[in-house]
Specification:
Layout lengths: L16 H4 L17 H7 L17 H14 L4 E5 L5 E3 L2 E2 L6 H7 L7 E7 L2 E8 L9 H4 L4 H4 L5 H8 L3 E3 L3 H6 L5 E3 L5 H6 L6 H14 L5 H23 L1 H6 L2 H15 L2 E2 L4 E4 L20 E6 L1 E2 L8 E6 L6 H19 L9 H16 L7 H7 L3 H4 L32 E4 L2 E4 L13 E4 L2 E6 L2 E4 L8 H12 L1
Parallel strand pairs: 1-7, 5-6
Antiparallel strand pairs: 1-4, 2-3, 4-5, 8-11, 9-10, 10-12, 13-16, 14-15, 16-17
Helix pairs in contact: 11-13, 14-15
Length: about 500
């Protein structure tokens, strides 16, 4: 097979008709080696040890992914279902963003490999699942050392045989899939937005409406977490708590630099104990705390101000925590900071108490918003009565956002679920959601006294609905103002 670019060896191995149609191997335009000699090519083809891995055990969630695929099969009998992992995305020139598999693919397979595709072929009994993956790099044609995604450059990948053992699904070469899909007959659905090549192969076989039904089903399937998922969320919350402790210990260094020191400190914990952060960490000091998604993290950290830290560790299986604490940078709340903080804490307590099986999803939001509206009326910031404030939504000038969301593989999990099963739905055991009320007084808000301006407070915890109520998965971190102060003093020594 000939190599891409420059003066290279035309024929390293005899070409079959099939091989001649394969895309040649990329080389950098301005690489220092213009070609490959026949002697070097022959040398690189041999002398390599057999590295096939034997006696592999299935991944921990294999039994759960099998059950999830069975549920999917039962929902769409007689239809071919295609769920891609996605492809690498270019960050700049020839460098890519770190790859994260689509949540639908990870949820159904446990695999996280780029270019992977799960296909469920309809059978008389249900469906036959096949996991389409890139096989090991080909050492015969030089791909493993000449291609930018060859194993010598980016690391070893599992063989198809190894993948079958790990994920409990028969595996095939993904390079053969587009042609097979192009010839497929019968009804087909695909999860869109992840793999343009796969979608192109199915362009005349799918409809947007039918594909959306597949996406919605997979989103709603994640509303109730199984035991594996709950354990992952517990792990994520525990690691996140340690990350918050790390931050408190280095607040003096953040004061000497910027919010980025806080961001980097938390990220270290996320990478040591997990895969990544679950979302861009919000490390908002002073008036930046009033910006809901402050992820620039380039501002000063000053004694006497508050730090709103909203961050979560994502586990290696891609489940994320989502926790917020608002901390006095010098370790002590001022009188006004504590008043505002205590109001938010009281609202969160009311919200958490409303999380229980059989309750409406909206109940926790309504409970928290009522407390905050009462405080705003009490402080004279908005004219009552409270019922009027809530009816007109006047409290939203300072509360801004909803009081929570579902949590799981996405930080805002299950977002494609139907409104009637999510926001207008009923809580069930196994659901996991955040409860995160806040009060935000913008620095330029002339409707509040000057001393309020630039203060933002949010408290957020990850709450699991249980058979008899709820469990706070993030309760390792203190929430009451006096407990926060004592905790910070202990960590600072």
């Amino acid at each position: 097979m000939s190599y891409r670019g420059g003066n290279v060896a035309d024929e390293l191995t005899p070409q079959s008709a099939e091989e001649s149609e394969e895309e040649p191997i990329k080389q950098r335009k301005n690489g220092l080696y213009p070609g490959v000699s026949d002697e070097l090519a022959a040398n690189m083809q041999s002398g390599w040890a057999d590295t096939e891995l034997h006696d592999l055990e299935p991944v921990a969630q294999a039994e759960h992914t099998a059950r999830r695929r069975a549920d999917l099969s039962a929902r769409f009998p007689g239809e071919r279902l295609v769920v891609p992992a996605g492809n690498l995305r270019t960050r700049s020139n020839d460098t890519e963003y770190p790859f994260r598999a689509s949540v639908e693919y990870a949820y159904l397979t446990g695999n996280q490999t780029e270019d992977g595709v799960l296909v469920l072929e309809p059978t008389a009994e249900g469906h036959r699942a096949t996991l389409y993956l890139l096989p090991r790099s080909d050492r015969g044609n030089g791909e493993f050392w000449l291609d930018g995604q060859g194993e010598l450059w980016v690391g070893r990948r599992h063989s198809l045989t190894e993948a079958e053992k790990l994920y409990g699904i028969p595996a095939s070469d993904v390079r053969e899939l587009p042609a097979a899909l192009a010839e497929a007959t019968g009804p087909v659905r695909v999860v869109r937005g992840h793999d343009a090549g796969i979608e192109k192969a199915l362009t005349d076989k799918v409809t947007a409406e039918r594909d959306e039904e597949l996406r919605v089903f997979l989103s709603e399937a994640r509303l109730v977490k199984d035991a594996f998922e709950v354990a992952q969320l517990e792990q994520a919350c525990a690691s996140t708590a340690r990350g918050f402790e790390d931050v408190v210990r280095v607040l003096d260094k953040a004061e000497a630099t910027s919010e980025r020191y806080i961001e980097g400190t938390f990220f270290l914990r996320a990478r040591v104990e997990g895969n990544d952060v679950g979302y861009g960490s919000i490390c908002a000091a002073g008036p930046h705390a009033t910006t809901l998604h402050w992820v620039r993290n380039d501002g000063p950290v000053r004694s006497g101000d508050l730090l709103l830290l909203d961050a979560g560790v994502e586990t290696n299986e891609l489940y994320t925590a989502d926790i917020t604490r608002t901390l006095p940078i010098n370790g002590r709340f001022s009188e006004l900071q504590r008043k505002i903080y205590d109001a938010v804490y009281e609202a969160q307590e009311a919200g958490i108490a409303a999380v229980k099986p059989g309750a409406k999803y909206r109940d926790f939001h309504d409970a928290a918003q009522r407390v905050l509206a009462e405080k705003l009326v009490e402080w004279g910031l908005v004219e009552g009565p409270v019922e009027r404030v809530l009816e007109l939504g006047l409290q939203r000038r300072w509360t801004l956002h909803g009081t929570g969301h579902m949590l799981g593989l996405d930080v805002h999990d299950c977002a494609a679920a139907r409104t009637e099963t999510y926001v207008a739905g009923t809580l069930e055991p196994g659901m996991c959601l955040t409860v995160e009320p806040g009060l935000y007084f913008q620095a330029d808000d002339l409707t509040v006294p000057e001393e309020y301006r630039g203060i933002g407070v949010r408290i957020e915890d990850d709450i699991l609905v249980t058979d008899d109520g709820n469990r706070n998965l993030s309760d390792a971190l203190p929430r009451r103002a006096d407990e926060v102060e004592a905790w910070m003093a202990e960590l600072k020594g």
